[in-house]
Amino acid sequence: MTSSILSSFDREGHRCPLIQEMELHELRKEKPSVAVVGFGKMGLLHSTILGLLGCGSVDAVVDSSRFVRFAMAKVMKNTAFYAGLHDLFSKQAPDIVYVTTPVASHHHLLTELIAGGIRHIFLEKPPTVTSEELHEILGMLNKNHIVMVGLQKRYALTFRHAKSLLDQGIVGRPTKTYASIRSNAIVAKTNRHDSVGRGVLLDLGIHLVDLLAWMLELREVVEAKKRTMYTCVDDVFESTLGARNGGIVEFEASWSDPQYPSPETRIEIHGSSGTITVTEDFVRVDKNKDESGASSYCRYKPHYYQGIPPANLADPEYTLEDLHFLNCVSQGSEPATSLRNAQETMRLVDEMYSKATRELHD
Amino acid sequence: MIRELLLGDNAFTGASHLSQEKARMESHEATLENIVKVIEASVDSGATGFTFSTHPKNLELLTHLHDSRRDLLEKLNYYLLTPYVHPYLEKAGEEGTPALLRASLLSALEGRSSVVQLASAVLSMDMARLAGVLLESDISPYSKVIPRSRLRAIFLHELVTEMVIAFKMDNLLRDLDVHMKKRTGASFGLETRNLGQFCDFVREIRYVPEFVMTPINGLGYQMAPDKETAETAVTELGRSSKIIAIGILASGGLALHEALAYISRFKDSLYGVATATTSPERARDNFRLLAANLVS
Hints:
The complex is a heterodimer of chains A (362) and B (296).
Chain A: H1 2-13, H2 17-20, H3 24-30, E1 33-37, H4 41-53, E2 57-62, H5 66-75, E3 80-82, H6 85-91, E4 96-99, H7 106-115, E5 120-124, H8 131-140, E6 146-150, H9 157-167, E7 174-182, H10 200-216, E8 218-228, E9 236-243, E10 248-254, E11 264-271, E12 274-279, E13 282-287, E14 295-300, H11 301-304, H12 316-331, H13 343-355, E15 358-361
Parallel strand pairs in A: 1-2, 1-4, 2-3, 4-5, 5-6, 7-10, 8-15
Antiparallel strand pairs in A: 7-11, 8-9, 9-10, 11-12, 12-13, 13-14
Helix pairs in contact in A: 7-8, 10-13
Chain B: E1 4-8, H1 20-29, H2 32-44, E2 49-53, H3 56-68, H4 70-73, E3 77-82, H5 86-95, H6 97-110, H7 115-124, H8 127-143, E4 151-156, H9 158-166, H10 170-184, E5 187-191, H11 195-205, E6 211-215, H12 227-237, E7 242-246, H13 256-263, E8 270-275, H14 280-294
Parallel strand pairs in B: 1-2, 1-8, 2-3, 3-4, 4-5, 5-6, 6-7, 7-8
Helix pairs in contact in B: 2-14, 5-6, 6-8, 7-8, 8-10
């Protein structure tokens, strides 16, 4: 049974529904003018993907560093570089703005962009530092605004497949879930995050909270603990969460695990009739023994990404989220990870922080 | 005509395009002693070269071969991929692009041989030259241990190549090509995982790359914008460039016989084929089959 269900996804699923919904050639014809605010790693990543897709033209970059503006302008001859949004607005009127700056600047930048008449905004995660900031931004938006948050894990085909299997009841009712997201981003003392006041849960753990809220419909925060190792904020965050139908989720986020040179998300969902394990790289289904015997099945990344996405740079989900955003802009529809839809994720993040009263020491 | 069968380094450096779980497993197997056994088995079975990134583990390996196994070192041709981007990305992610640029300059300064070149590039504000000096600095420790006559080509890492395509940096590309050839004496190549876009770009700017390294496999994994377009690009580029196929097993998604059946279709367009493993036995089996079926 497991095999046949996975096979059915094989036929439909690896022709990714996200790709099917998009008419790439139509998007290419529209070729909106794009400005990128913040030309760090994520700004470069999205700009390069857009260039490879041929769907958007990065005509402008805003970056506060004179060094970056000078060096990049020397090699990117078709792009104008500006020190701030005021300079940008005085010279250009982009159709889309990507905001890829640190989170502390998001509230301020979004306020300026909305006031400047920008209707289509891609905002890297986390959207804001707190839910309160997010609600303030939402209050400034009207129905013509399309603001999407870069919670790209939702666009990874493995997680989409796992969600689909879960919704079909392949492993029955989820009772217990073990979920983690780990990286080795911070393994030495740093004070970079002190001013934000929030650490790994907001920066990295938000992906996992978002995935769990989407897949399992999280309801409440039962317990939360945080540990400080290299910063003044949370380097490790653990929590017990309550999901729909009484399921329990054990959550862990760490950016200080030396075993993980690249971030890895792992969700192991134990249901009444089996287990689904999913990461960015694979989906595994282990069915409990019944009259037809036990069965298990595993599919890896090369199975899911056959000839897709149409641009390869870093993880495939980045290209898929960019395509989804461009498609939503083109169709005037709401993105799956819109700012509005990110409210629940940010509410949970806030609640987890507020309940994390017990400080764990390494 | 396939002339080179190359051993790849992914399995040695803890990189896997299949899964991070597999990468962690392989990194435990990738001891220096075991890697040397893999190289021996590969060479005995038909491997003619080694393609690798400037990862510190590869420097350790090549230095070991240079000091203790010169016989093995001198049996291979070398195809070097630069820069090793992981630490640069970490730096950019952690501290932003200005910190990355500063760190790159400082790192180049540490490679003393390029101080004059670096100062000259900075003073002249010539970014292509500066990029060239940074790449030279990145490969410098490796070129000291590899036999000079065996260093066949230096490839620009895919992340840089994709930026060159996306932002149409044709001047930078041409200048880098000239700079690297002149300064290293080796050929210059480009690695890409977006072969269709790459082909359009080089055609548009009338640039003929000497070497191209790209994934080619029956699943179409990491072939963009789609498998069919990438296949057409292989045939077109193969007429004038030396193409090295990587990812032929789709990172473990295909068995070797499936990969062989597919890759054989492009025999006339390919110059080399690369594959990687941490198992000496698998290296022996894979290279024997590749040699028997692809090299005649």
